């Protein structure tokens, strides 16, 4: 899929969700991000600043392979890093709130209109 251009985060959001169209990809993102966050917080609470690296290393280290192996696409982070970070937080928040079905529907709609 060619690089997409967006004028706002609101335009980007459905694309971001579509790049996470498979349930497994979303759950791998959630697991990697929350694991990295937990290790980072634990390390920082113990005064070990290097543990701050756990969040990006574990977060991206689990998410990116999911894109290549499950979704068969490139991570949206490559073209839109700031919006992707915001999208990841929004996606994980929705999943934790029990709204994964809504994400699946958004992904399906965007893919039906754009592929």
Layout of strands and helices, then pairs:
Elements: H1 9-18, H2 23-45, H3 54-71, H4 81-96, H5 100-114
Helix pairs in contact: 1-4, 1-5, 2-3, 2-4
Can you tag this structure with a few keywords?
5 helices, 115 residues
Major sheet characteristics: none
How many extended strands?
Answer: 0
Mean pLDDT figure = 95
| Class from secondary-structure proportions | mainly alpha
Q: What shape does the CA trace take? A: elongated
The secondary-structure element order is HHHHH
Regions with pLDDT < 50 over 5+ consecutive residues? none
- Structurally, the number of domains stands at 1
| Count of alpha/pi helices | 5
Approximate strand percentage = under 5%
The proportion of residues forming helix, as a percent range, comes to over 70%
Query: How far is the N terminus from the C terminus?
Result: 9 Å
Rg, alpha carbons: 15 Å
Concise account of the structure shown:
The protein is mostly helical.
Walk me through this protein's architecture.
The protein is an all-alpha fold and 115 residues long. It has five helices and no strands. It has one domain. Helix 1 (9-18) crosses helix 4 and helix 2 (23-45) crosses helix 4 (81-96).
